[in-house]
Amino acid sequence: xxxxxxxxxxxxxxxxxxxxxxxxxxxxxxxxxxxxxxxxxxxxxxxxxxxxxxxxxxxxxxxxxxxxxxxxxxxxxxxxxxxxxxxxxxxxxxxxxxxxxxxxxxxxxxxxxxxxxxxxxxxxxxxxxxxxxxxxxxxxxxxxxxxxxxxxxxxxxxxxxxxxxxxxxxxxxxxxxxxxxxxxxxxxxxxxxxxxxxxxxxxxxxxxxxxxxxxxxxxxxxxxxxxxxxxxxxxxxxxxxxxxxxxxxxxxxxxxxxxxxxxxxxxxxxxxxxxxxxxxxxxxxxxxxxxxxxxxxxxxxxxxxxxxxxxxxxxxxxxxxxxxxxxxxxxxxxxxxxxxxxxxxxxxxxxxxxxxxxxxxxxxxxxxxxxxxxxxxxxxxxxxxxxxxxxxxxxxxxxxxxxxxxxxxxxxxxxxxxxxxxxxxxxxxxxxxxxxxxxxxxxxx
Length: 445
Description:
Elements: E1 5-7, H1 11-24, E2 28-33, H2 40-44, E3 47-52, H3 63-73, E4 77-79, H4 89-97, E5 101-102, H5 107-114, H6 116-125, H7 141-151, E6 155-159, E7 168-171, H8 177-192, E8 197-201, E9 207-215, E10 221-233, E11 236-242, H9 249-265, E12 270-278, E13 284-290, H10 297-304, H11 308-316, E14 331-338, E15 340-341, E16 347-348, E17 351-352, E18 355-357, E19 364-368, E20 375-376, E21 383-391, H12 394-407, E22 409-411, H13 417-424, H14 427-430, H15 439-442
Parallel strand pairs: 1-2, 1-4, 2-3, 4-5
Antiparallel strand pairs: 6-7, 6-8, 9-10, 9-12, 10-11, 11-14, 12-13, 14-21, 15-16, 17-20, 18-22, 19-21
Helix pairs in contact: 4-5, 5-6, 12-13
């Protein structure tokens, strides 16, 4: 087992990892920017090292500073969390060269599965259904027009190296291709330092469903069921749940098998997520793989009674997957509490938290790094807390979520709590009559 783990991240995920490390008896090192000096992940780690000013490029993305922190503290492993350097193959490679274990896939695996176009071809080769489209990166506007004509409009252009809605454009006819291609490519270059795009048939009225997998160094790959992440705004997930309310048992079995087969085909090691789009006929299509732990992993933990971060660490240390998947029990939701104003276009709302009351009770979990008088900085993602609830079934979980959201009080800044309350009262949500483009159907500002 590792002697000491450095967490190359911030906020709630850094604190989440620290908690599991403490239960495993592993000392931890937090790194932080000057803007995060008062964050709880800094308080509760065994050691903490400042790695730079507020800018991510000068702190959480600055590899030399992170490696220097690992060296001076004697950390022999680094957990990247999600975001920042979690899917950076170069960082994984430098860690290996420095005799520091990167708690995640190998550099080669990140390159193969982190590039969406390559991942799509890898999955297609082993029989996993994929959305019709280009066989790799599209080299030119004319090639994009040719492929679009073959698969039929509408199509969608996506950044090969990224996610989160950046470098993504829907194209409804040939006249829109040139502008969409140029805009998406420029956006991809700015966000990921890679302008490459790939093209897919645009699935209308889709649901976003993903399968959580875990692979070890002995060739074993297991799945922990699926999560439904259909409630989104601009391709950013807002509410996740497990199991999916629309997937039948037969489709679930096929989808989870496809995810495991795809991961096994590349000898995948560590935590990962295979993501699918599901059409109205319950046909599912692979869209990408995330080679890291995800923001929404707690919903899977709740219905499977498993600590996925613990599994990650054990696998990275060379052990077999210890807590094998079992039949999921009940239903779970995760609500992303963002420092945003939903009544004003979800405008960011950084600032001082003047009063905080966190809900509790059976089946309620809050993952967060905030506290009374904490100042939410304006430099990073707006996620400040995750409310996770469990119930015996979906209706029970919704009732518990309503109760928890009523208790959840944050004053001094605007948050997405009112949005979540409104969604839970919406008939379309209750009857799961929505898709990834239904934000207006679920929430009227």
